[in-house]
Design brief:
With 90 residues, the chain is α+β, with helices and mostly antiparallel strands. The protein has one domain: Alpha-Beta Plaits (2-Layer Sandwich). 27% of the residues lie in helices and 42% in strands. The chain has helices spanning 17-27, 50-62; strands spanning 2-11, 31-36, 42-48, 68-78, 86-89. Strands 4-1-3-2-5 form a 5-stranded mixed β-sheet, covered by helices on one side. A hairpin with a 5-residue loop joins β2 (31-36) and β3 (42-48). The chain is globular.
């Protein structure tokens, strides 16, 4: 199990990016959360298999069609197993 803190920069708020992230994370069996940040970026904490996290990052680089992703920062850590599912936080 692995944990990743992912920050997505660009036009990623107000374009269904969080819903897109939740749907894809759940499809990949990941747990954690996604939330908008005050600076206009989106933060994702995802825990699961490394292969699934890597697949999520690939999908996040594309984003939904209405988004314009400029940059994706990924920091990997050890999983804490604190999540029971994947949620959208406000």
């Amino acid at each position: 199990m692995q944990r990743a803190r992912i920050i997505v920069h660009g036009l990623v708020q107000g374009v269904f990016y969080r819903a897109f992230t939740k749907k894809n994370a759940e499809e990949l069996g990941l747990k954690g959360f996604v939330r908008n940040m005050p600076d206009g970026s989106v933060e994702i904490i995802a825990e699961g298999e490394e292969k699934s996290i890597n697949s999520l990052v690939t999908r996040l680089r594309q984003g939904p069609s209405s988004a314009s992703v400029q940059k994706v920062d990924v920091n990997k850590e050890e999983a804490t197993n604190e999540f029971s599912g994947f949620e959208i936080r406000r």
